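Bench notes, afternoon.
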Amino acid sequence: MNWSFWEYETFFNKIDVAVVGSGLVGLNAALSLKLQQPKLNVLVLERGILPSGASTKNAGFACFGSPSELLDDLGRGSEEKVFALVEKRWKGLRRLRRILGDKAIAYEGFGGFEVFTDNELYGACEENIDLLNKNLRKVTGIPAVYRKADGAIKKFGLKGVGHIIENTAEGQIDTGKMMRALISKVQSKGITILNGFPVKEIRDTGSYAEIEAEDGFVFRCGKVLVATNGFAKQLLPSYPVQPARAQVLITSPLKSLKLKGTFHMDRGYYYFRNVGRRVLLGGGRNLDFEGEETFEAGLTERIQKSLEELLATVILPGEKFEIERRWSGIMGLGGEKSYIAKAASKNVFVAVRMGGMGVAIGSLVGEEAAGLVLNS
């Protein structure tokens, strides 16, 4: 890029910390850095016009774990480890709401619901409700987070659903409004966000870090924090973060809609919610794990057809609907269901792998990553 003297001096000179990625984690890290040390010169770099991964493309679930998900996690790890992560999700959601305010993010506490078409899976969840509630009470202070709610099946107009378990502490947000509010707050603290700046390489010289853009432009900064979540391997190939595409669609407004709240189905591989009088539905990654392990945004006929079929047969049976918009986002997953926040080298840090729970945990991970940078 042919930067002028003025541009270089204003935007790229004497940068204390450069944050790569302007999603939830990156912006919260930048905000936390500035709140703790107001004199820091913090720069956020984003390759897209908007965050390119999942922060503005997710379904807006303010959730921390459905019963079947938590049971699956307990089958792989200890209660202590599983609920320690749940606690971070819970605290992350509270932090997000506290920093931005419920009105700014359009938070609505309609509750969450796991719907079951598999009686065996429901039986396992029902059998363990007391165990889950006991552990969640320690985290949330709520006596019974989960409760059986089969009566809601008719209320919501669902078909082919045998059972429902309600999460009384779950809510939903508008992720577009959330990111707009966060961007505004970050900029109000004097943090610069540069969009359309694709980073090609980061080098740690030992004394400082260098960032090279895809066009060959290089500038130096004191520290770098990589917060690109599912795209982490593009800059840090050795890190165990796999991209996972999530496909989503939303209907046009319906004349009437019984559905209200956030819904998890088939171990979370499908999820849906109301957005006013619209239905938002996403998922189907389990139909083609290999194909959906990609950095590329896009849609596939197989998964989109499965979403439309689910709408027609289970969610809106017998009702006419039109699809208004379709899109996809890129999550960051790994062999372990835990995020990565650590030093990659002396002057380069990383905060990635949100595991599909970025809304819940992103603000807390950003704050934690900022602490690592400040303490280095």
